[in-house]
Amino acid sequence: MFKRKAKRLREMNAELNITAFMNLMVVLVPFLLITAVFSQVSILNLNLPTGVTESEPTDEEPPKALEVVIRADKFDVLERNSGLLKRIPNIESGYDYVGLNTFLQEVKAHPEFNTDTGVTLLMEMDTQYDILVQTMDAVRLIEREERELDELGNIIQGELFPNISMGDAPPETNTAEGK
Fold first, then answer.
1. CATH class, range 64-168
2. Taking 50 as the threshold, does the pLDDT of residue 179 lie above it?
3. How far apart are the two ends of the chain, measured CA to CA in Å?
4. Which of 53-62, 71-80, 92-101, 126-135 has the lowest mean pLDDT?
5. pLDDT tens track for 14-47
6. Distance between CA 148 and CA 3 in Å, rounded?
7. Which pick of 45, 94, 106, 127 has the fewest CB atoms within 10 Å?
8. Where are the domains of the chain?
9. What is the mean pLDDT of residues 154-159?
10. pLDDT recorded at residue 106
């Protein structure tokens, strides 16, 4: 009896049938590839400030450098050498990004800044990331009420100051003229 069972087990050749599994894979893989959402990552190159170096005084005027200081209650737009150009206070809903963008468009139209592409964002230590990103967008791109579309229906955007450097805001000093 033992021999008969052992002989029957040896003769039984089990074949693995994977046809159904292969059919499933042939259908499933293309379906997953078609429906997959590919995330789009955009990279914005930033220029970080270098260490302070001593420079010898020269007779020539230093180049114009535009700075936007992000304070808790306002934006200060400065020219590094001449000082404050405009103070843009917050509105009820928060920071006035439209006001900042409009003023920077005026600055860009000025002959001293029309070829300049760089701006430095100086922020206080407790500035939120979302505020920084929205400020970078307001400084980088022209925002318009009416949207201009190209022949494919894409929105045309202009550049203001795409080369952005970042740093810490200097402490605010109270002047005699007030805030």
1. alpha beta
2. no
3. 105
4. 53-62
5. 778 889 999 999 999 888 888 876 666 666 666 6
6. 89
7. 45
8. 2-35, 64-168
9. 67
10. 87
Give the torsion sign (CA, 102, 106, 112, 115).
Answer: positive
| Residue for token pair 């000025």 | 110
- Report yes or no: 121 and 165 within 8 Å, Cβ to Cβ: yes
Q: What percent of the chain has a predicted confidence (pLDDT) above 90?
A: 10
Is 76 in contact with 99 (CB distance < 8 Å)? Answer: no
Amino acid, single-letter form, for residue 130: D
Helices (H), the chain: 2-11, 19-35, 97-109, 129-140
* 69 HSE (CA, 13 A, CB side): 21
The CA distance from 164 to 172, in Å, is 22
Q: How would you classify residue 161: left for phi > 0, otherwise alpha for psi between -120 and 50, otherwise beta?
A: beta
Cα pseudo-dihedral 106, 110, 113, 117, rounded to 10: 40
